[in-house]
Amino acid sequence: MVTPKLKNLFKNVGPLVWGYRQLQTASRTVAYRQDYRKFQTLNQQVEPRFALNWHDRYPCLTDKTSATGFDRHYVFHPAWAARILARTKPDKHIDVGSNLQFCGIASAFVPMEFYDIRPADLGLSNLDSKSGDLLNLPFTDNSVKSLSCMHVVEHVGLGRYGDPLDPDGDLKAIHELKRVAAPNGDLLFVVPVGQPRIQFNAHRVYAYDQILAYFAGFRLQEFALIPESPADGGLVINPDQALTDRQMYGCGCFWFVKQS
Questions:
Q1: Is the sign of the CA dihedral 142, 148, 151, 157 positive or negative?
Q2: pLDDT tens digit sequence for 130-173
Q3: Is the alpha carbon torsion for 95, 96, 99, 101 positive or negative?
Q4: Which residues lie below 8 Å from residue 258, measured CB to CB, with a gap of 6+?
Q5: What is the Cα–Cα distance from 55 to 58, expressed in whole angstroms?
């Protein structure tokens, strides 16, 4: 809820933030023009190999940083999953809607099928991309020995991707994953963890204990946390419960094994 106090804060601070960003953009634009002129001069002093024209410019004004930035969730969780597949070495792995870079890279060493309601035209060896609905997976009960669904379920039912609005859409998706997983089969499951809430219509954030309860009948083989603060680590395997509980928007990586 946006209180009157918060409204006043946004009213007073908003223009300052906007003005600061405008100054940043103006400063970067000036520096960009200076760099272009300097490079143009240097280019005239060597044998030209490329056409250099102002109308071909492609400004990248925010990349001069002291360190390479990256999305912590979407770098660390595929790396975690790929390392597990390298250990388990399944004959085939089924992924439902996860990160395409994960599927593309992991399929180099594990035969993989990727299912999404919006299938991707990947065209890679060892990887089949197929149409599939997470709420009605095209597999019989207890049939999939190696399965992943990562950073997907938190969106189901919120309409973000054109799916029907359904407050229990995530639970229905989890039921399908549990249904098709084979006894003693592996399930790699990733969702945001922290203070449980819905941030409509982007995603849900789950408490750690919620996920364990939803997957009754599965054994937690490994839990990895990607904390929201880099100061708490990158990919933390089996973290202290207190670290998990104090997250607002961390990333929880659950390796479940279906009990027979």
A1: negative
A2: 999 999 999 999 999 999 999 999 999 999 988 999 999 999 99
A3: positive
A4: 142, 178, 181, 182, 183, 184, 185, 187, 217, 218, 219
A5: 9
